[in-house]
Amino acid sequence: MAAVCMLWQTSPAATELETKxxxxxxxxxxxxxxxxxxxxxxxxxxxxxxxLVMRERALGFTGNTAGLFGAQRLRxxxxxxxHSSIDRAIWFSGIxxxxxxxxxxxxxxxxxxxxxxxxxxxxxxxxxxKPAGIIGNVGATGVGATDPIGALAAIAREFDLxxxxxxxxxxxxxxxxxxxxxWAGIEGADSIVIxxxxxxxxxxxxxxxxxxxxxxxxxxxxxxxxxxxxxGQDEVVNYSEWGIPLGRExxxxxxxxxxxxxxxxxxxxMIRNHIAWSRALCEKLRATPxxxxxxxxxxxxxxxxxxxxxxxxxDDLNLALVESIxxxxxxxxxxxxxxxxxxxxxxxxxxxxxxxxxxxxYPVITEIVARL
Length: 372
Ligand SMILES: *Cc1c(COP(=O)(O)O)cnc(C)c1O
What we know:
CATH class of the largest domain: Alpha Beta
Strand order of the largest sheet: 1-9-8-7-6-2-3
CATH topology of the largest domain: Aspartate Aminotransferase, domain 2
Largest sheet: 7 strands, mixed
Structural class: alpha/beta
Bound molecules: pyridoxal-5'-phosphate
Number of strands: 13
Strand content: 15-25%
Number of domains: 2
Radius of gyration: 22 Å
Shape: globular
Distance between the termini: 51 Å
C-alpha cells in the first residue's frame, strides 16, 4: 500500500498495472489502439503537462533551456467555457493569460466555433505570433459545454498545433457507446484528460491522461540525473517522466478494484441512470410555472432559474435561492453564470445516489421558492 511508483525499478508491479489499467480504460472509452497514458493525481496537473508540451513543441523544445525571454509570443486557444485549471496551466507555463485566446461559442452545446478559431489563428500568424495549441472541452464545468472535437482536431492538424481535450468530468460518460457522438473525432486529439475520480467513482487522485505520442511528454518533462538512472533497463517505462511530480502513488489499484468489483456494465448503468434522472427532474421543473430551464441536460447536468414576480432582480433572487437551498441542507446546488446571468446548476453524479434522491430535489426546491 505504500508503493513508491516513481520509476519502474522502484515499483515494477505498480508500473505494469498502471499500463494495464490505462489500456482497460482506453478500451472502455472507445479510444483507438495506440493511445498510451498514465494516471496522474489530478486533471489540473495533466493539463499543465499538456500545456508545457504545447509550449516546448512550439519553441522547438528550447523553452526549458533558453526560457521564454525573447522567444516568439505563443498563443493557445480555448472557449470561454473552459475550466479554470486551463487558465492556471497557462499562467504556470509562462505563456501568460493574455495569450490564452477565447474562441467564440455557438449552438445549444455552447461549443467553440471552428471558423472563428481559424480566423483567430490566421490573424495571430499575420501579426507575427506563434500559435501553439488548442484546448477543447467535453462537458465543461459551468453547464457542460462541449466543443466540436473533430472540427477542432482538423484545425489543429492544418496549423500543426497540439490539441488537448479536457473531458475531466464528462469523459466518464464515454464508457456508454451511445454517448460517444458527443466527442466524435476524439481520435484526432494529442492529449485527453478524464477523471475516473469524479463520475466513475474512483478514489481521489485518479486522473487518466491519454496521449497519442508519449515522446513529446518525456521530451518536455523528463530529467535524468545519475541517481534516477535504472542501469540496464532502458526499455522500461518510468511514469514519473510523463508528469510533473517525481513521487507517485499506486493509483492503478483504485481502478483495478473499481473495475473488478463493479464491472463496466454496472458502471454504464449508473451513468445512464444519472442522465435519465437528471432529465426527468429537468422536465418536471420546466413544467412548473415560474421556472426557466437555462441549459438543457448535458450529460447529467442542467441549469435553471426561478423568475419570480415581475420587477424582481432575477440574479439576486436566484443567488438567494441557492443559499437557502444549501442552508436547508437536504440537497446541495451550485450557481454559475450563463451569458452573464445567474443560473442554478443541478448535477447528478454521486456513486450511490438513487432515483428517489434525485427526485427529492423537486419538493425541496419548490418548497423553498414558496418561502422566499
Ligand atoms: C474537475 C474538473 C477539472 C479539474 O480537475 P482536478 O482533477 O480537480 O484538477 C478540470 N476540468 C474540468 C472540466 C473539470 O470538471
